[in-house]
Amino acid sequence: MKKMEDYVRSIPDFPEPGIIFRDVTSVLQDADGLHMAIDKMQELLADTEFDVLAGAESRGFIFGMPIAYNLHKPFVLVRKKGKLPCETVEKEYDLEYGKATIEMHKDAIKPGQKVVLVDDLIATGGTMEAAAKLVEELGGEVVKIIFLMELAGLKGRERLKEYDVESVICYEGK
After folding, report:
1. pTM (2 d.p.)
2. Catalysed reaction(s) (predicted)?
3. String of DSSP letters for 92-157
4. Per-residue pLDDT tens for 32-71?
């Protein structure tokens, strides 16, 4: 029986020497791997009461949508700036080299809603920290943040220490 890690292609020295790139496309390209990824992520929510799932562009959409569908929950898009057509709230955050801005529709989260955030990978945690702050700005409560993979060496979990964070796979390095 294969483990989730068996579906993740590891590419050494990409994008620079000493880094091992964890490629999620190899999971998506294998029907069994994709099925296992969705099931394992959904299992992380077994004891979590929530109203809404929100996913970060773009792989958070890929993993979050089937979970929302399976659990009969609404799904909210967390997008890059300028991609949503209605009134939005936005949050700027730091990248390794520069800054980025994400947005949500202003009416996407109702006050008091319990929200789960979803993405494929936690590295430094900047995107999910910004997404959590947007949820809170709209009056929602982030009850859990889930990932398929975690790069523990980049300490993203520390950045998200005030939240319940879980990942299916944890890699010790960067």
Report:
1. 0.95
2. AMP + diphosphate = 5-phospho-alpha-D-ribose 1-diphosphate + adenine
3. EEEETTEEEEEEEETTSS-TT-EEEEEEEEESS-HHHHHHHHHHHHTT-EEEEEEEEEEEGGG-HH
4. 999 999 999 999 999 999 999 999 999 999 999 999 999 9
